[in-house]
Amino acid sequence: MKTVLHLRNAPARGFTLIELMVVVTLVAVLSAIAVPGFRTLLLNQRLASSISEFVAALSLARAEALKRSQTITLTSKAGKDWNSGWEVNGAIDGVPTTLRTFNALPAGVTVDPALGSAFNGKVSYDANGFSRNGDAYLMGCVALKAETGRRSAVVVSASGRPRVCDPDKKGDCGESKCAGSGS
């Protein structure tokens, strides 16, 4: 004997309209909470990436100066304004050449003019890898700030080595001013 299942008597399956509305409301509330947090995370990540890229540019300029035994310069593309990007310049067979170009800072990240001199838009490395400004050793920093208020700085010592620091931490970059504090 075969058993026949009658679907007419089976209980209804699925969700009620009220259950669906509760789920939609919960998703909307959680999204409203998560989106601002995600934006903050995104801006802080852009800041960290920009700082990393600036350190890479400084390290490249220093390495090229040592490798080529000549002066290599990292300059901003727009005078003293690092916001527009930067490039590593040197001479190949006596011809001025751009060795590498870096993009402008991403949206939401800018140079913080309140900290340091930003090297006046130029960092030169001599054949020994020391950072120079003419005949004098160059020390200073470039500080970047995200729209979230978080800041980060790259400090270059007289020896030419860059390091990243947090200007909002007491003593990390000096006394909240990283100009001239390079060790």
Rg on CA atoms, Å? 27 Å
User: What is the correct CATH architecture?
Assistant: 3-Layer(bab) Sandwich
Total domain units: 1
The helix/strand series, from N terminus to C terminus, equals HEEEEEEEEEE
User: Biggest sheet: strands side by side, in what order?
Assistant: 3-2-1-5-6-7
| CATH fold field value | minor pseudopilin epsh fold
**Annotated CATH homologous superfamily:** minor pseudopilin epsh domain
Average pLDDT taken over every residue: 83
Distance between the termini: 92 Å
Beta-strand share of residues: 25-35%
Major sheet attributes: 6 strands, antiparallel
* Helical coverage, percent range: 25-40%
How many E-type strands? Answer: 10
| Individual helix count | 1
Describe this structure in a few short sentences.
It is a single-pass membrane protein. This protein is α+β, with helices and mostly antiparallel strands and 183 residues long. The protein has 1 helix and 10 strands, in the order αββββββββββ.
Q: Could you please describe the fold and organization of this structure?
A:
By secondary structure, the chain is an alpha+beta fold. It has a single domain (19-165), classed as minor pseudopilin epsh domain (minor pseudopilin epsh fold, 3-Layer(bab) Sandwich), CATH 3.55.40.10. It is 28% helix and 31% strand. The protein has one helix at 17-68; strands at 72-78, 81-92, 95-102, 109-111, 122-125, 131-133, 136-137, 140-146, 151-156, 162-165. The chain has a 6-stranded antiparallel β-sheet, with helices on one face. Strands 4-8-9-10 form a 4-stranded antiparallel β-sheet, covered by helices on one side. A hairpin with a 5-residue loop joins strand 5 (122-125) and strand 6. The longest helix has 52 residues, at 17-68.
